[in-house]
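Tip: read the tokens left to right.
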């Protein structure tokens, strides 16, 4: 019974995946490089989108996976998520060792 429940849960999750027809994306749709750029300027675009309804933080339609990958890299690796110093974590480790 547990195997059936796990299979049913996996099937339900698989049913939630989004699909798209390959001819639905225009050849000039934003790709990796525009996704990277949009990820880098995300904080500014988000603030601007609060006051201007014609500004969006994510390009739709885009070419799919490559745009998403560039957007992810732009935000996490090079943009908002990047942090050069990890002094907070070093301080926590030192405090734990001192106890």
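Filled-in amino acids:
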């Amino acid at each position: 019974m547990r195997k059936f429940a796990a299979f049913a849960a996996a099937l339900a999750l698989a049913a939630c995946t989004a699909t798209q027809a390959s001819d639905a994306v225009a050849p000039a749709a934003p790709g990796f490089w525009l996704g990277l750029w949009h990820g880098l300027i995300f904080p500014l675009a988000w603030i601007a989108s609060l006051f201007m309804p014609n500004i969006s933080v994510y390009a739709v339609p885009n070419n799919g996976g490559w745009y998403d990958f560039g957007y992810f890299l732009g935000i996490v690796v090079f943009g908002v998520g990047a942090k050069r110093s990890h002094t907070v974590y070093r301080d926590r480790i030192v405090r734990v060792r001192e106890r």
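The radius of gyration is 20 Å. The mean pLDDT is 75.
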